[in-house]
Amino acid sequence: MKQMTFAAAAMAGFIVSAPAMADYVRLGSVDVGYHMDRDTSWTRFGGGMEGLRLVADGNDVWCRSIVAHFADGELQNVYSGMLREDRPVEVDLRGGVRHVRDVQFTCRSDRGGARIFLSAEVGRFRDEWMRSPDWSGYWQGVFGGGDRRGRDADYWVTLGHERFEGRNDRENHFAGWGGQSVDRIGLRALNDDATCWPMRVEFANGSSTSIGVGHLEQGRPKSFDLPGQERNVRNIVLNCHADHGHAVTIDILARK
Fold first, then answer.
1. Would you state the pLDDT for residue 169?
2. Choosing a second label site near 78 at 20 to 30 A (CA), which of 54, 143, 214, 226?
3. What is the pLDDT of residue 170?
4. How far apart are CA 10 and CA 15, in angstroms?
5. Cβ neighbour number for residue 230 with a 10 Å cutoff
6. pLDDT of residue 198
7. What is the reported pLDDT for 17?
8. For domain 6-141, is the CATH number 2.60.120.1300?
């Protein structure tokens, strides 16, 4: 299967190159099914957008369709074809006065586990995101917090999300830290209560530590101190399941 050409992309109604000064903010990621198309969606937005950036992580991903549904009822099939790992595809959103209600993915990976990261080009809508009711509790951390960095002892940043399905515990590795120096790690179950085995934290120098997690109450962050002097986190390993439903998504946060 070949990646769509620029001409084919243009005919589908999107652009694969963004303006040089595009202001992208990473929103999170969705998991991709292995050897079968899997329907999943991203629904968390805080304002309008000029465009989206899509990046496959873990493996190349084949997408039958990626569809944006707008607040006014319009929809746009923003991408079909192969998403190459670490090769971003940048999408121009043309409908719905650029207010997206959700993005639905029908995608699969034929080589193993994968996910797709979403980033929003907020452009002229940045002030709208800052006026969102979720700004102080969520989006401020995603956007980087402006001039709060270095002045607020409770400055938390959302680094990403992990989704756990089924009653059988399985390990998820979250490596989106890039050796960042942090004081504490936070976990927040979004759509159900969750139970987690001890979390393994791996550091940039090759050492690791195990931290008990236990019960996570839906919507309530739980924070964990890092023992010792190590602060440069490289990876964490989580093993969780939903307490009541089939699946649970867990926010991963860090305090700098």
1. 56
2. 143
3. 61
4. 6
5. 16
6. 92
7. 35
8. yes
Distance CA(219)–CA(255), nearest Å, equals 18
Locate the DSSP E strands across 124-243. 156-165, 170-174, 180-181, 184-189, 194-196, 199-203, 208-211, 214-216, 222-225, 232-242
| Token reading at 217 | 């109450």
Beta strands in 43-155 (DSSP E): 51-57, 61-70, 75-83, 89-92, 100-109, 114-121
Let me know if 227 is exposed, middle or buried by CB neighbors in 10 A (0-12, 13-18, 19+): exposed
Amino acid at 222: K
Question: SS3 of 172, please?
Answer: strand
Give the CA angle between residues 235, 238, 242 to the nearest 5°: 150
Cα gap 206→210, rounded to integer Å: 14
Query: How far, CA to CA in Å, does 255 sit from each of 67, 144, 215?
Result: 34, 12, 21
Range(s) for CATH 2.60.120.1380 in the chain? 155-255
Give me the pLDDT at residue 100, please. 93
H helix intervals, the chain: 6-11, 126-130, 140-143
d(CA 84, CA 89): 9
Q: Which residue has the tokens 């639905």?
A: 104
| pLDDT score recorded for residue 4 | 39
Residues in the chain predicted with pLDDT less than 70, given as ranges, are 1-23, 86, 95-96, 144-156, 167-171, 175-181, 228-229, 256
